[in-house]
Amino acid sequence: MRISLNPKAEWYDLVPGHIRVLAEPALDLVFEQAAQDDRIVALNLEIDEATAADDIDRMAELQRLLGKTMNLVVAELVITDWEGIEDDKGNPAPVDADYINATLRMPALASAWDQGYMARWLGLSDVLSAEKNASAPSPTGTSAAAPSTAKRARPSAKSARRKKTARKP
Prior knowledge:
The chain is mostly helical.
């Protein structure tokens, strides 16, 4: 793990060559501030209520919403500049909560923010990179954690006939 004693804002490409954001590092204080945001506090209370009511579907939906909201709140706290984001008149858009929210409502940009910035600062970039691999490395071709489900093949099959048969070609 590389640790910088003086982390600085960095550019993150959301759409390489088109849209990028300048964002401050998301250190512990950023996540503490985000956790105190009214939107996050309200969602956590709703999750507690859904948990108490044993409403699993509602809990799952609220957890998903909490993740999206956390991404948004962190973005509002750390994005200081951007390129490629314009207002409805084609002028460079100001970096403010409304435009950040509008930007991260676009699935492709939200995903790029999540994978490029949030994963890095949450320490998940290595995990996400590993998930891109279609299968885990295995010397035998089966999972080491699970037993084989395939039956063993027969030792050998009978050899094919060498003589011609009465069959017509």
